[in-house]
C-alpha cells in the first residue's frame, strides 16, 4: 500500500537471518477490523511479505498463510465473530485450513473469536468475568512449539504482549478442555494473572494439526521498538521496546520458507 | 405479515456475566428478591408470504447456525407469534 508508514525497526535487514520474503501471508480485513495494518507490519518486520485480503473476496491469491486480525468485525453484532464467519473469504480459509495442505491460520483476538465461530477451533469467548474492557501488558507462557506459529519457541518460554478485549473469557465444556490439555493443544497460557476468567488460564489454543492457532492477546503489538510494551519476558525494557511477539510471526515464515525449499 | 420468534439463552452451566451485573443492580433500585438474572436474546423473523412449515424449518436452521452458538447458548423457543397478541403487550 502506498500510504504505508516506513518501518522504524527493520529487523528484516538482519543479515544473519534467512531470507523470508518468499513467504506470503494474507491479512484479512472485515468491516470493523482494527489491527489488520498492525498485523501486516508484523509480517513485514518479521521479514515476510504481507498480502491484504478482503472479506468479500473469494480468492486467497495463493498466500502461504493467513492472519485474521483483531478488531470488532461487524461491530461484534450478534456475537463476536458470528457474522464474519460466514463471509465468502472465510469459506475459502476454512477449506484451506482443513485441506491436506493445512494452510497456517492465526486468529488474534477478534480473529480467535472468528475461528471459534467457524468451528476451526473449539470453545467460545464470552464477556470478561469482571465485565470491564481490559488493556494491559500480559505475560504468557508458550506451552508448546508443535504449531506452525510457535515452532521457533522453546516450550515453556514466556512472552509479554498487549491484551485488549471485552469478550475475552475463553469457555468450553470440561471434556473439551481435558482434550485440549491432553493433546497438547493449549498453546498460550496467562501467567501471574488471569485477566478475564478464561478456563484454566487459557490464552490461546490450536487445532489437532497445529496449523490453526487462535489467541486473545496481541503479539502484533509487540514487534517494533517504540510501539511495544514496556516489558519483555526478561523484565522491563526502555522506550516501549518489548518485541516478544515477533517470534510468533517468524515461526510461521520460517516454516513456510522451509517447506518451499 | 407472519412472524417467527426465536429465543436464545446462555447455557445454564455458562456463567452469564451480564445477568450477574443486572442482578447486582436491581437491589440498588430497591427491587429485592431476585436471586438470579440471566440475559438472553429474542429475534423476530418476519416472513413475506404464508406461514408455512417450511418457513418454520428454515427459522430453526437459522436459529442453530447463525443466531446461536451451541457451545455457549441454547435455542429455547422457535415459534410463530400472533401479531395481535404481540402488539398488545403493555
Describe the structure.
The complex is a heterodimer of chains A (261) and B (90). In chain A, the strands form three sheets. In chain A, strands 2-1-3-4-11-10-9-6-7 form a nine-stranded mixed β-sheet, sandwiched between helices. With 261 residues, chain A is an alpha/beta fold. The longest helix of chain A is centred in the C-terminal third of the chain and has 15 residues, at 246-260. Chain A has five helices and 13 strands. The mean pLDDT of chain A is 92. With 90 residues, chain B is α+β, with helices and mostly antiparallel strands. Chain B has three helices and three strands. A three-stranded antiparallel β-sheet of chain B has the order 2-1-3. Chain B starts with a strand and ends with a helix. The chains are: A alpha/beta (261), B alpha+beta (90). At the A-B interface, loops of A face helix 1 of B.
Quick structural summary:
The complex is a heterodimer of chains A (261) and B (90). With 261 residues, chain A is of the alpha/beta class.
Q: Report the sheet-strand fraction of chain B.
A: 25-35%
Low-confidence parts of chain A? none
Task: Give the SSE order of chain B as H and E letters.
Answer: EHEHEH
Strand order of the largest sheet of chain A: 2-1-3-4-11-10-9-6-7
Strands of chain B, total number = 3
Distance between the termini of chain B: 21 Å
Any idea what the radius of gyration of chain B is?
A: 16 Å
How is the main sheet of chain B built?
3 strands, antiparallel
Gap between N and C termini of chain A: 28 Å
Overall structural class of chain B, as computed from helix and strand content, comes to: alpha+beta
Name the helicity range of chain B.
Answer: 25-40%
- Helices and strands of chain A: which structural class? alpha/beta
Amino acid at each position: 500500500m502506498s500510504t504505508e508508514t516506513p518501518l522504524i525497526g527493520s529487523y528484516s535487514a538482519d543479515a544473519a537471518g534467512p531470507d523470508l520474503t518468499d513467504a506470503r501471508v494474507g491479512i484479512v480485513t472485515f468491516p470493523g477490523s482494527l489491527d489488520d495494518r498492525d498485523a501486516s507490519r508484523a509480517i513485514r518486520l518479521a521479514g515476510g511479505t504481507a498480502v491484504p485480503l478482503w472479506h468479500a473476496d473469494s480468492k486467497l491469491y495463493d498466500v502461504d498463510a493467513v492472519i485474521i486480525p483483531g478488531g470488532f468485525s461487524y461491530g461484534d453484532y450478534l456475537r463476536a465473530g458470528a457474522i464474519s464467519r460466514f463471509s465468502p473469504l472465510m469459506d475459502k480459509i476454512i477449506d484451506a485450513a482443513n485441506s491436506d495442505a493445512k494452510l497456517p491460520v492465526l486468529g488474534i483476538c477478534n480473529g480467535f473469536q472468528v475461528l471459534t465461530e467457524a468451528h476451526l477451533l473449539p470453545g467460545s469467548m464470552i464477556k470478561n468475568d469482571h465485565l470491564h474492557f481490559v488493556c494491559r501488558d500480559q505475560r504468557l507462557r508458550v506451552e508448546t512449539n508443535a504449531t506452525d506459529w510457535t515452532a521457533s519457541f522453546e516450550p515453556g518460554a514466556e512472552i509479554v504482549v498487549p491484551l485488549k478485549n471485552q469478550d475475552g473469557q475463553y469457555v468450553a465444556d470440561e471434556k473439551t478442555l481435558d482434550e485440549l490439555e491432553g493433546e497438547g493443544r493449549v498453546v498460550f497460557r496467562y501467567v501471574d494473572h488471569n485477566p478475564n476468567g478464561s478456563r484454566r488460564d487459557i490464552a490461546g489454543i490450536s487445532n489437532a494439526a497445529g496449523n490453526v492457532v487462535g489467541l486473545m492477546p496481541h503479539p502484533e503489538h509487540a514487534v517494533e521498538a517504540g510501539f511495544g510494551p514496556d516489558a519483555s519476558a526478561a523484565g522491563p525494557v526502555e522506550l516501549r521496546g518489548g518485541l516478544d511477539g515477533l517470534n510468533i510471526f517468524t515461526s510461521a515464515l520460517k516454516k513456510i520458507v522451509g517447506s518451499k525449499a | 405479515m407472519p412472524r417467527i420468534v426465536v429465543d436464545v439463552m446462555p447455557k445454564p452451566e455458562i456463567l452469564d456475566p451480564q445477568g450477574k451485573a443486572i442482578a447486582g443492580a436491581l437491589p440498588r433500585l430497591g427491587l429485592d428478591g431476585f436471586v438470579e438474572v440471566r440475559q438472553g436474546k429474542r429475534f423476530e423473523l418476519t416472513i413475506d408470504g404464508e406461514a408455512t412449515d417450511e418457513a418454520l424449518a428454515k427459522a430453526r436452521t437459522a436459529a442453530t447456525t447463525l443466531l446461536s452458538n451451541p457451545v455457549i447458548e441454547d435455542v429455547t423457543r422457535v415459534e410463530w407469534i400472533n401479531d395481535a397478541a404481540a402488539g398488545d403487550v403493555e
